[in-house]
């Protein structure tokens, strides 16, 4: 049985998918570099770094790609955006009610709730002002791009709570980590 030849578009999509897997593996091993290659980088590491820099993705503030951003990346399980007039469909409360429940003052720009892990892998939610960063994450995640933000500055963190806020949009890495490989599963609620 012969295999059907891929169209050029299918071939390019498959090459891009594989390149993203290579980039993700390098990131997991802790040596991926978007800036200048370290002096001790091997030829393979330099080639993978060049590949990662060439992959097209949606850039956003705090994506770690700008050389001045030397803060470490923050792995997220998922995010929730709350804004005046634009609330997640599963929440039966207004923006102001959500802010009151969370314990933050309403802001015109809204808030981003970053679900991540604290010490000992405990689930925590960081309430941050980085709404534009979160929108950039969501644009990448919608395309299956496993993007992560840099650690927020202390001035961007309004508060940190135990547990995860929901319903959240899961990151591609969290989908893989939890075994939820069905691309139709985009939302999860928590405690």
Q: In percent, how much strand structure appears in the residues? A: 15-25%
Using DSSP, what is the number of strands? 6
The global form is globular
Q: How many distinct folded domains?
A: 2
**In terms of structural class, how would the helical and strand content be classed?**
alpha+beta
Spatial arrangement of strands, main beta sheet: 4-3-2-1-5-6
Give me the strand/helix succession. Answer: HHEHEEHEEHE
Contiguous low-pLDDT stretches (5 residues minimum) are: 182-191
Largest sheet: 6 strands, antiparallel
Helix content: 25-40%
Quickly count the helices.
5
Rg over alpha carbons = 18 Å
- How far apart are the first and last residues' alpha carbons, in Å? 50 Å
Averaged pLDDT: 84
Summarize the entry for a quick read.
This protein has helices at 8-29, 43-54, 95-102, 131-142, 172-178; strands at residues 78-82, 111-117, 123-128, 157-162, 168-170, 187-188. It is α+β, with helices and mostly antiparallel strands. A 6-stranded antiparallel β-sheet has the order 4-3-2-1-5-6.
Question: Can you give a write-up of this model?
Answer:
- The protein has two domains: 47 residues, no CATH class; 111 residues, no CATH class.
- By secondary structure, the protein is α+β, with helices and mostly antiparallel strands.
- A hairpin with a 5-residue loop joins strand 2 and strand 3.
- The protein has a six-stranded antiparallel sheet.
- Helix content is 32%, strand content 15%.
